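Q: How do we represent a protein-ligand complex in a form that can be generated token by token?
A: Start from the inputs.
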Amino acid sequence: MSEKPFLDNAYSVETVAETKAFYNDWAATYDAEVTANGYATPRRCARALAKFCTDKSAALLDVGCGTGISAMAFSGAKFSNISGCDLSSEMLAKAGERAGLYQDLWQADLNDPFPFETGTYTNIAAVGVLATGHAPADTILQITAKLPVGGLFVFSLNDHTLQDSSYEGRIADSVDSGECELIFKDYGAHLPGIELKSTVYVLRKR
Ligand SMILES: C[S@@+](CC[C@H](N)C(=O)[O-])C[C@H]1O[C@@H](n2cnc3c(N)ncnc32)[C@H](O)[C@@H]1O
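Then emit the structure tokens for the protein with S-adenosylmethionine bound:
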């Protein structure tokens, strides 16, 4: 078997049902496979959020939290009030095994409206989540709409997603409308093992 049996197919899932089934099947071996391929974006996102966040005990929602690798990176950067949501029940089950990491974990599809009030979470993260077949570009505006003034949204777009101009288009829409300012943008390593890079962004709500 290849060393990256799921990564080989991760960028070809198209529908929500396919994505959910794909991650349910991958949950048991996800951590080992992405770690073996040098998964770097979680630590890059955590460092970027830490650079601008003035209160690391403020509520942070990790959307598409997966098995908890991204929350581990935020925790490592001293964020102490992390909740997570994900489409896949199996990924959530793995995240739940990381005792004490999360305040709360719940199942959600980013294609649906968020079931919480604006300002519930001071900061929101989406690490390796925003992509065709996972969550559409409009998810960016759905998330920024839920931030309080001064709240931060840290997220990544990998090389595949960057080819779809609608994702950076929604970032531009948020900035051009005066909703958010783009305070961080950095292109760097994502999964070196498959020669994939990503851009990490931080938007701050005005
Ligand atoms: C590449 S993994 C990233 C997980 C974690 N953030 C990390 O850095 O390891 C993508 C995650 O997004 C979740 N996901 C994909 N589409 C989603 C959707 N529409 N709504 C919620 N979660 C979704 C998947 O179930 C999976 O756990």
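The radius of gyration is 16 Å. Strands lie at 60-63, 82-86, 104-107, 123-126, 152-158, 180-191, 196-205.
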